[in-house]
Amino acid sequence: MNVNESAENYLETILILSRKNPVVRSVDIAEELGFKKSSVSVAMKNLREKENITVTKEGYIYLTNSGRAIAEMIYERHEFLTNWLTSLGVDSKIAAEDACRIEHVISPESFEAIKSHIKIST
Fold it and tell me: Which pTM value belongs to this model?
């Protein structure tokens, strides 16, 4: 499950879009992230080669089990850290931006410790 930050962001975006839309296409990802379609196409090729996504002949993108596991892990971290920082008084936009950076580098052990600590404190 070792992927880089960029791949994690793409997988998370696919997960989020798949919850809002019946299908996800490269153009949807490019629009959501503000990237060029050509950049997204290269990233999708890499994710497909790593078996994190499948792409139908119509261009519909689906997460594989491994891709979904990564996406859900990153999304959980993002949501949790954003909410936590906001509850500490951090502006919601800044909290989301900071959470996006933290979610990729925090170890599973540290993240679980923070979650446990916050659950005990509340």
Answer: 0.89
Range of the domain at 77: 70-121
Residues 30 and 79 in one domain: no
The residue type of 77 is: R
Q: What does the buried/exposed string (b/e) look like for 64-97 if buried means 16 or more CB atoms within 10 Å of the residue's CB?
A: beebbebbebbbebbebbbeebbeeebeeeebbe
Query: How many angstroms separate the CA atoms of 14 and 8, rounded?
Result: 10
Query: For 42-65, what is each residue's pLDDT tens digit?
Result: 999 999 999 999 999 999 999 999
Are residues 58 and 79 located together in one domain of the fold?
A: no
Tell me the helix, strand and coil percentages in the chain, rounded to 5. 70, 5, 25
Query: Per this entry, what is the length of the chain?
Result: 122
**Domains held by the chain: number:** 2
Asked if residue 105 and residue 58 are part of one domain, the reply reads no
